[in-house]
Amino acid sequence: MRTSRRKQHNTNMGTGRDLYGDNQGTGPGVITPDGCAVEFYALVPPRQEPEIVHAAAPSAQASVLELGAGTGRIADALADLGHPVVAVDESPEMLAHVRHAEPTCAQIQGLTLGRRFDLVLLASHLINAPDEAVRRAFLETCASHVSADGCVIIQQHPPAWFTSVAESENESDGITFRLRDLSRPAPGLLSATVEYQAGDRVWTQSFTAARLDEPALHAALAAAGLAFDRYLTDDRQWLRAVPVEGSR
């Protein structure tokens, strides 16, 4: 049933290895090109993310485009809060779990939906992609799909995290999370592996993230025709940007 309403957009800009570098995943089930385990993300409930986004939206019924929506845990929660939501992800296996948002199977880079939204959401720390060209493409897609009086909500690894992060283990909702194998392969880069365990199932995802200090963040936004508005959380992990008048 969901397949019949899933839209396909051909925005292929390269292979997973080209786009995601050293991001790799292991474990049972389908692993997406960026190393995400579909079965694992289908287990993870929404936490505070939908409320953060909802509170920053231009209106209580603002239209939302989520880029990199995965299984729809945020997109579906926003739809339940009254927002019409389009959920974009390149993985059809991820989108098969979307229940209430409108799923669209496509890469973020080069996406052209031909419509604009009151709010564009770029979560999952995608702005910290280590490849500057990929990061720029993500933000350009945000800018090309947000309405003139709308906003872009972004989740980042804040600069302080790159200094304070350490190997750790914690448990939430019956899932054990382990962060291990931390390294700093170059100035401003951090590589690590996250291990997730639910019962006897174990998944890993290795990633590299790029640190963006405030000048670099503001410059990246400006290059895409966006301007920093404000932080939404005290830890500066969530921020709001707006389109620059006359940039389009």
Instruction: Tell me the strand percentage band.
Output: 25-35%
**Total strand segments:** 13
What would you call the quaternary organization? Answer: single chain
Rg of Cα set: 17 Å
Strands of the biggest beta sheet: in what spatial order? 1-5-4-3-6-7-13-12
CATH architecture descriptor name of one domain: 3-Layer(aba) Sandwich
Structural class based on helices, strands and sheet pairing: alpha/beta
List the helices and strands in order.
HEHEHHEHEHEEHEHEEEEHEE
pLDDT < 50 stretches = 1-5, 10-18
CATH class (first level) name of one domain? Alpha Beta
CATH topology of one domain: Rossmann fold
Largest sheet: 8 strands, mixed
Shape: globular
Helicity range: 25-40%
